[in-house]
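USER:
Before I trust my own judgement here, I would like a peer's view. Write it directly below this note and I will take it from there.

ASSISTANT:
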Amino acid sequence: MELFDKIYGCYYHIIRRMLNQAADHPLTRQDMEDICRTLGFQESALAILPKIKDGTWPLFQENDLRTYTSRLHTPPCPLPLTCLQKAWLRSLLSDPRIHLFLNDAESAVLEQLLADTQPLYNEGDFYYFDRYKDGDPYGSPEYREHFRIILTALREHRILLTAYEGKKGRTHTFEVLPYQLQYSSKDDKFRLCCLQHSHGRFCRNTLLNLSRIKQCRLSPEPPVTDPDGVHALESFRFKPVQKAPEPVLLKISGERNSLERCMLHFANYEKHTEYDEDRKCWLCSIYYDLADETELLIDILSFGPVVQVLGPESFVRQVRERVGRQHELFYGVIGNEGCGE
């Protein structure tokens, strides 16, 4: 038995799309070339269109106006799932996070359809050595209900009323306009990116941990539908990953098991580490995305004096500023000595 079949290949996929569209309206050669370019490769049109033109693949009828219609009486039926696809879906159902996006009825139907399918893998097959163990309670009915309400608010651009537990245990009420959900694989937590209502408008960018949301409901206010408001929400959404122009260079002393701790803590980053014989320390270059810069900065500072930031200068400057603010909070004066080291 073959693992893959040609009917699931690229050319079959292109022809199937052409037949579906040709069932609704005649296709021009340009239409066909666009489908080949979108679903195939640069040279796909050169291989496919001549076979349609000369009748090698007699699936289309050429009309007088040099357009093509489907010879089939009905559009092609959807392809059945392969055993590999079904096994993969069965594995996804064992992940508690997938049920956040499904209601109970949908989950039950999928479980029934895939009941006789062996999963491709199980959650127990993975060992997460770089993940915190206090992840979100995905099995909690309250958490799942909050998640579904938040998804509705995101899809419909609705205002959300939330009761949120702060770091000191106090509950605060917010009126927010969600624009994105984020998931941290390292923390195993979902976060809600939203605009908090302040001074008569939604302007304060806020990040809320979903596990700390004690109550939430949709506001009776109508959805944001005006073009300017929708465009403002879209502008806050996730942008393509942008690498920092230079890596952060760390000097790791090796004291207090700092090397092993750094390798474990920064396991999700691309990095290069080498031992400096002259200085008797480890030099670690961490390559990161600009969106993760603040989180990386906080993580580095958590190591204290066993780690020193050597560059780039822009990152060292942020370290100095943050350490200076901490010094001011504790002692009332800004201390620059030692900041950035």
The mean pLDDT is 86.
